[in-house]
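Sample pair:
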Amino acid sequence: MSLFAHINFSKLPVPTVGEAFWKCTKIDEFLNLATNTPHTAWFQKIAVPATKFSVNLEPPSEERGRNYREIRMEFKDHVPFVWRFHSHPVLFDGAKMKLKIGEQNLISKLVPGNQAGDSPVLHSYMTKYQMGFLKIVDWLRKFFKCEPTDIKIGAQCITNYDEMIHWEPLLNTPKLVISECDRSQFITELLERRHEKQLRTHIDYVEILHPQSASIEALCSLDYISGRINFYCLDSNFVTEYVRNHILGRENSKFYVFRAAIPDWTRDQVNAFGTDLSLQHYDVDLNRTHKPRMMFNELRDDSRMFQSRKNETSVLVFYFYQGTLGFNKMVITVWSPRGLRPGN
């Protein structure tokens, strides 16, 4: 970097020198130069938008214990750029690289990839872990003139939900995957705002105790592996339309089970639900060929009432549980052929 310390980059022509400089400079070197000179605007002019911009607030499954957040950007004519952020300074003893992003001075170091052919990884230490990371993403959005193409958020990775719900990339990214969440207000507002943009949201394990503030269209824009929604205070027709549009109306290959509190249906209402949705009565012979993808204690044999073909191999089975005033709980599970591994 010292070789370039006294160069006035702003005087260099962008169409010729700038374009050549971009092509022959590694992304980590490019950012190091761009953030340590007074000519950041010149570097921004010559930077080419990323073709893919992934933001991950949780490490891959094989590295969960390492506790870092990661940005991965892919560019035409460049190897992928991977940048990891850590909240513990002990990893950075002896690190000499410093990137200045806004108010943050990031002590950093470049580490070779784990295997031959892997891209090197830029590691940085940062304070104000959530807000600091969001600001880094926002700086990269502006600098490279592109938006995150996908965002992943792990369990317990959000420390301030009020902060996250106003973060534009969360509302605008085409692909948003959250591993689990039970914050009803956050979920319903997130779904409404993303649905306005015709975007779907995936939360692997979701629980919505207060869905009243969400429209049925917004709720139907949510995909999950396991979902639990409290419909007890909502009209029975709302429950029927949700199942019609979301459970029966679209293919979600990751869906395993849906559990819902319902508003004390009579047996006639349960039967009307099955008739409205053209469900078949449960066939005990299904036990011979299929089994639930996900098992838990609530799945009592005597509560199975309906079934419906999900696809060529899988079947949806509907369970209803009776309380003191009526049927107050419904469970819908996917049954797959015996011998077929989950996910196939």
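The longest strand covers residues 327-337.
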